[in-house]
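Lecture 7 notes: from sequence to structure.
We start with the chain below.
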Amino acid sequence: MNNQPRAANRALASVIGAPIDSLGWRTALQRIEGWAAARESRYVCICNAHSVVTARKDTIFGKVVREADMATPDGAPVAWMMRRLGVASQERINGPDLMWRYCAEAAQREESIYLYGGMPNTLEILQKKLLSEFPGLKIAGAYSPPYRQLTDDEDSAVIKAINDSGAGTVWVSLGCPKQEKWMAEHRGLINAAMIGVGAAFDYHAGTIKRAPLWMQRNGLEWLHRLCSEPRRLWKRYLVTNTLFIFYAGRQLLSR
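Predicted structure tokens for the same chain:
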């Protein structure tokens, strides 16, 4: 993990031990825009209940989240917990919407982005969708890494390709906790702001159907994903959600 100075002037709330930024959409977008314009090597974690529980149980991942330049409250339970801790009206700053809103604004600035992660067919569809929706957007490059760990030469080639592309942001879709660990390992090497957005590539490409708006607004997006992929996600949502409720309740009772 590289020793890049972390972002200053942050308002943080501890959610079962994970420091999450108290901020709104405008601040989140402006912060990333500033890093992108300066080509600063930064990374952003988008944290839901699974993330903060994993950060508590996995020492390495916990360090990654603590040392992030920004950690947003993705899941409704995390935003709810922050409101209970005194952060009035805290919104969800989730990965798919953050990516979409940022691309809309980047298109107005004719700013370059880079896409890292996802399957090749997903990346192909996603690029067409983004350019159709945001004609001024510049996609400087896209890369679908293999499931195995990259060799040192392959990793060096990826770093060079991203830096040479001129992209101010790298949108990373590798899933949690792989994407967060990858970003932390590449801070100080990649001259761009890296944002881990989970399944956002699949949602925007349409290869995975996102929950209806009413479920998103009522904190039930996790249930839609669980019903869509029960065999893969049952442990993540049923076990970690239960642990989140336990840890959150203990934190609130100890105040």
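Points to note: The longest strand covers residues 42-47. Residues 112 and 166 are 7 Å apart (CA to CA).
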